[in-house]
Amino acid sequence: MLDTRPNHTIYINNLNEKIKKDDLKKSLYAIFSQFGQILDIVAMKGIKMNGQAFVIFKDITSSTNALRAMQGFPFYDKPMRIQFAKSESDIIAKMKGTFVERQKKPKKPKDDEEAKKRRKAAKEQARALAQQNNPGGVSGGNVPEQPPNQILFLTNLPDETTEMMLSMLFNQFPGFKEVRLVPNRHDIAFVEFENEHQSNTAKLSLNGFKITPTHAMKITFAKK
């Protein structure tokens, strides 16, 4: 919704989209110049901008009178809808000395995009490996089973296990919150979910998953 606060520029829509841009500007000038000096008329073509234009007057009195008098005026068989523009036009700002060059949105560093792609690829690879190595969820024994809760206890992890590696494995499951490694212990870790149902889903899917050919990860519920 455009601002209704009076300013030098009026915004017009519901214009006939079949009219050529140059003809449209000439016609708008012809009917609006009666209200005062016009500094510029901006009419843009394109799917999103068709049927729209901006008329910039030298003073606010002219734009206000034009809006009141021409609201709903049948212009090429369509009633014009007119409002004050949302912001002051550049040409008026330059006249007032308040013009500020618009900053272009900085492009994201290419490295960030590449890193995202790598993380996404690694995540998809981890998901595929999980399904390949453990299609039915192999049960891992030797660890006493605790009552279901939102925290999983991982054992039999290889020395090269990292927080990112485990995060990629587990964040494919809904409710994943975080991975917590144990200082000075590379073979165990904790993974927390929002609730026990979500942690159980991950447990059933990844219990017995081989992070390396010689290390089948064992997952149980953590002690509360």
TrEMBL record:
SMART domains: RRM
Domain RRM: 8-87, 150-224
Stretches for region Disordered: 96-146
SUPFAM superfamilies: RNA-binding domain, RBD (SSF54928)
Sequence ranges of Low complexity compositional bias: 127-144
InterPro entries in the cross-refs: Nucleotide-bd_a/b_plait_sf, RBD_domain_sf, RRM_dom
Cell location: Nucleus
GO BP terms, alphabetized: mRNA processing; RNA splicing
PROSITE patterns: RRM
A cellular component annotation (GO) from this entry: spliceosomal complex
GO MF terms, alphabetically ordered: RNA binding
Biased composition (Basic and acidic residues): 96-126
Entry similarity comment: Belongs to the RRM U1 A/B'' family.
Protein name per the record: RRM domain-containing protein
Origin organism lineage: Eukaryota, Metazoa, Ecdysozoa, Arthropoda, Hexapoda
